[in-house]
Every structure is written in C-alpha cells, then in structure tokens.
Amino acid sequence: MLKSFEAKIMGNISEYAIATLGSHTALQILRGAKDEGFKTICICQKGQDKLYESYKVADEIILVDSFKDFFQVEDQLIQKNAILIPHGSFVSYLGWEKIQDIKVMHYGTKGILEWESDRTKEREWLTSAGLRLPKIFKTPGDIDRAVIIKFHGAKGGKGYFIANSPEEFYERIQEYSGDDGYVIQEYIVGVPVYTHYFYSPITQELEIMSFDKRYESNADSIGRIAAKDQIDVGIRTSYTITGNIPLVLRESMLPDVFEMGENVVKESRKLSNSLTGEKLTKGLYGPFCLEAIVDPDLRFYVFEISARIVAGTNPYINGSPYTWLKYNEPMSTGRRLARDLKEAIESDRLQEVLG
Ligand code: ATP
Question: Are residues 284 and 324 located together in one domain of the fold?
C-alpha cells in the first residue's frame, strides 16, 4: 500500500487528480478543479451519482454504499495520486478523529477540524483571536436576558429553544427527554451573516470571497403567519438548513471583517492536536467561514467557525462581487482552492498545502 508520503510529488498538475465526496460543495470543487486543468474524481453514494454525471464535473466516479466506507476506497485514491478536498459532509460522516488517520493527500490541516467540531475548543480559539462571542451562561439560574439553548447532538438546530428567564428555561427543558448536553448561549437579536474567507499559504494573502445568509426551516417561514396563529398551532422554531442566500455587506463593515479573519488565522498557528499533542504550525488555511449575528450597532457576535469550505459559497460558482474585484474571471471558492494547489505544485511547494 502506498502511504501519502510516498505519493509521487511532481511539478505538473496533470499527474494529480482532485477528489471529493459527492455532496455539500462537490459540484463547485470539481468544476473549479477542471477549470484549473486537474483531473477530477467524485466519490458518490450509490444512487446519488447521476447528478455528478449530469453536470460532467467528474472524470471518474467511485461508488460507495455510504460515505462512511471512505477507507475502503482510499487505496484507489492513493494509486491515482489524488488530493482530497474536505467539506462539511466529509467532516460530518467521518468525524474529525477518523480524518486524522487519512493517508491520501489531504488539502488543509486535519488537526484544525477538531477545533471546529468541539464547541469548547472553538470558543477558546475564537476568544483568543479577540472576537466577540455571545455570552455563555453556566447555570440556568444566571439567565438574565434572552438565551438560546443548543443541544449538542441536535442536527440542524432542531429542538433549540429560546428562554428569557430561569423559570421559562425550567418549563421548556421538561419537554426534552434526550440525554444530550446543552449550552445556554445569549440570544443576539440581529441578522445572521456568514463570511467566507480564503487564506493561501502560497501567496500568504487573506481574501474575503463572499457572504451568505441561510435559508432555514422553519425559522425563515414563521414570520409568514401571525403571532397568534403561531401560538395557537404550537409552532416550535427549528433551524434546518435548506439553502443559502447570497449577501453583500455594507462596505464600511469590510475592514473589521477582514481583521477578524486575519486574527483567526494568526491564532490558529498556536493550536495543537489533542490526540498527538503536536502543534498545528501550519494553522488554518484554505477556505473557512465565520458565522455571526450582527446586532443593530453593527457588532459581530461570532457563534461558530467552519474550518473548511462551506455550502454558503455555492451561490457563487461563477464568482462573487468580491472575487470579481480580484480576478478578471469567474472564481468560485472551489476554483480558488484548485488554484492554490496548482500554484503550490508548479512552484514545488505542494507539502505546504497538505496537512
Ligand atoms: P452546528 O453547525 O453546530 O450543527 P447548527 O448550524 O445546526 O449547529 P447553529 O449554527 O449553532 O446551529 O445555529 C442555528 C441558527 O440559530 C443559526 O443559523 C442562527 O441563525 C441562530 N443562532 C445561533 N446562535 C445564535 C445566537 N447566539 N443568537 C441568535 N441566533 C443564533
């Protein structure tokens, strides 16, 4: 079996293939890779391959019963000199621990995925980067304002609820029988803003790629019926993501947004992998996203970081207003990523973007 460090390292991109799982942001990753001249491989779950065939973004499709079977096809990827691009589905199917065992070439620092997957670690990282985060209440008795209660295992924000006092918290928590832990977080009244960044270790530049807001069911439809009807029918808010809506930010806010991204990247180089104790010296690079609520005083309250490409970049397969400023050609985040790999390969610096 070939190990990643034995993979053939050559200065020509035709010797490599870019591979990803067929879900999440695979269409733009594969299309972007093709635009940059790479061969592409899509690992698809049986029954979901037609879509990728139809868009002709994959030169090769490898079928698996489930993404959880990724390790069964890893040797094939190594033989093909593939570079794997992680995305949200990849992290959610495999989990950050298993990702540490991947032998095939992998774009991005694997150890960073632990820090985005653990709410406590994530908070430590973002706080040390000087970002403003919603306050966390240690005990329900401390609740003195609107709070959102987030259950650890909740997929898509299902079951989250809002309370305004300890009494309201204790009343609502009775409805939940699961043994998942939860966090009590200050509820920020404002608008959600998801910022998509790209940091290249090759150019050593940070780029703001785009912004989105999410389209969540049923949170985004509750306002369509009267408050009285919501109460009568007993509607409970959930935040299941169904799509993403493009967004452009007030220009005066961009300098702060840029600085937040820079600080997060800088601070990431001080983090370490809890399994190996190794320092993550390369830190965070490639695409990442800061998820925030912006209040009426235009303060950003960051409640989450995604340390890999996010689905919010999907509206921009043909580029965003911001990428147009920098590139006189369509530049999706998927393509930007392939460009980073291409520049790394052609300047004999591939190891700098593998992690
Ligand atoms: P995860 O990505 O960890 O599975 P999730 O995406 O399902 O979590 P969150 O991102 O934590 O859930 O939150 C879901 C939604 O709730 C967000 O889109 C946002 O609109 C809203 N939200 C989250 N935290 C806050 C907060 N502190 N104040 C106001 N709204 C919030």
Answer: yes
Ligand 1 atom showing the smallest separation from residue 301 Cα: 27
- Measured in Å, residue 175 CA sits from the centre of ligand 1 at 20
Q: Indicate whether residue 220 lines ligand 1 (CB < 6 A).
A: no
Q: Give the model confidence (pLDDT) of 279-323 as tens digits.
A: 999 999 999 999 999 999 999 999 999 999 999 999 999 999 999
Longest dimension (CA), the chain: 66
Range of the domain at 108: 5-130+191-216+245-353
Q: Ligand 1 center to residue 211 CA distance, Å? A: 16
Residue closest by Cα to atom 14 of ligand 1: 157
Q: What is the pLDDT of residues 116-137, one digit of tens each?
A: 998 899 999 999 999 999 999 9
Residue 87 CA to residue 29 CA, distance in Å, equals: 10
321 and 257 in a common domain = yes
Confidence bin at 267 (pLDDT 50/70/90)? very high
Mutate to test the pocket of ligand 1, among 148, 295, 306, 308 (most ligand atoms within 8 A of CB): 148
Q: Residue 337 has which token pair? A: 């990523």
Judgement on whether residues 207 and 117 belong to the same structural domain of the protein: yes
Interval between CA 56 and ligand 1 midpoint (Å): 34
Distance 140 CA to ligand 1 centre (A): 19
Same domain, 9 and 112: yes
